[in-house]
Fold:
Amino acid sequence: MESAVLLAEGLTFVCPTEIAAFGKLNADFNDRDALIYGVSIDSEFVAPAWRNNHADLTDLPFPMLADIKRNCRRRWRAGQEGGVALRRHLHRRSEGMIRFVSVNDMNVGPQPREVLRVLDALQTDELCPCNWKKGDEFLKAA
Structure:
């Protein structure tokens, strides 16, 4: 099983939109045997506060985890800006191998469909050209 790991780091204006967008695609990730986890360097009290104050987060279909000791951030080498970790998305196989990393600046939201597209490509174990999407042709090695 693949794990899609979402780090929505710190309480910013963009984070709730990011979390909600991944939440809307949760079933698509699950269809690909992938799980989404929201991981924040904030305390375990922040995620419930977000859910209570943002209508689009009340029915969030994946868990939010607190990384207050910043172990995940250090292990995944998440960059930092002004004491807040940058947005980082990873696809990690169950055996722990990281296969994809995407990092966004604090003021730029990610494209969750692109993260899903990359997961599709990784799961083929084929050569996928630039802009490949599910159903497209693979590259053939010469």
